[in-house]
Amino acid sequence: MKGYSENYWAKRAGQYNKTNWVKNEDFIDSFLNMLPRNNFETILEVGIGTGAVANKVSERIGPLTGIDISKEMIAKIKHPDITPIVANAHDLPFEDASFELIYMRNVIHYIDDPVLAFSEIYRCLKPNGCFLFSQVVPPEDSISEEYDWLIGRNIHYPTQGEIVQLFSKYLSVDSGHFILKNQSIMNWLNNTCRDESQKQEAIDRHKNTSDSYQKLANFIENDNDILVDIKHFMVFGQKI
Q1: Apex CA 157: angle with CA 154 and CA 158, to 5°?
Q2: N or C: which end of the chain has fewer CB within 10 A?
Q3: DSSP at 198
């Protein structure tokens, strides 16, 4: 996954739920409210992590399966209605047409080949099956290059346009946004950075972003932190 070693994910597993966006209930509610119904017999989460969304899905809809590349992440999942499997989104270990609902939240920027991952998801969906997707995106597509530089982890955050193209096979596509306001950059860095030097580099990049980015993100800097709005693009599609 784009240079992120097993060891990196093992270290992140213990801190993952401390990052503000992960367990934000308003965000999870908005995401799941994109679904047209709450009666799915077979459900898969791609990139289940520590199970923050899966816990809600199991309560609202029913039992599910989740895959993740990190065994340390899924070891945090203890819910009896969630079946976690170590697997890669490029090669889902399921038969064709296995699931009525597949969902993914904030994973695609870590995946080496998003087109292949989307193809695997499409393959595993039943006819008329539903795919629910959410992803952090740049505030506007026009500042995509600056946004990737800002994050500084040698990964690409897809634009809305790129995500819409990935959904080109789906019928009945619907989309929306959820803005996480005044998000703490220090909270994000404290729970995701590998070392102090990486953290300082990220702070410096944020302080040197363009006026355009700072205006779009409602950038606020104080003595101890930087606060920005984070845009999530949510998409629902139904398999043809």
Answers
A1: 135
A2: C
A3: H
Confidence of residue 85 (pLDDT cuts 50, 70, 90): very high
Q: Would 196 be classed as within a structural domain?
A: no
How many structural domains is the chain composed of?
A: 1
Q: Which H or E element spans position 31? A: helix 25-32
Q: d(Cα 64, Cα 44) in Å, to the nearest integer?
A: 6
CATH number at residue 235: 3.40.50.150
| Element at 134 (helix H, strand E) | strand 125-137
215 is a domain residue = no
Query: At 153, is the secondary structure helix, strand, or coil?
Result: coil
**Each residue of 195-214: pLDDT tens digit?**
788 889 999 999 999 999 99
**HSE of 97, CA atoms in CB hemisphere, 13 A:** 5
Does residue 90 come out as left (phi exceeding 0), alpha (psi in the -120 to 50 range) or beta?
A: alpha
Angle between helices 144-151 and 196-207 in degrees, nearest 10:
150
Q: Which of 152, 132, 143, 149 is nearest to 235 (CA)?
A: 132
Predicted structure pTM score: 0.92
Kindly tell me if the per-residue pLDDT of 141 is higher than 70.
yes
Is 199 inside a domain boundary?
no
- Domain that residue 165 falls in: 6-179+231-239
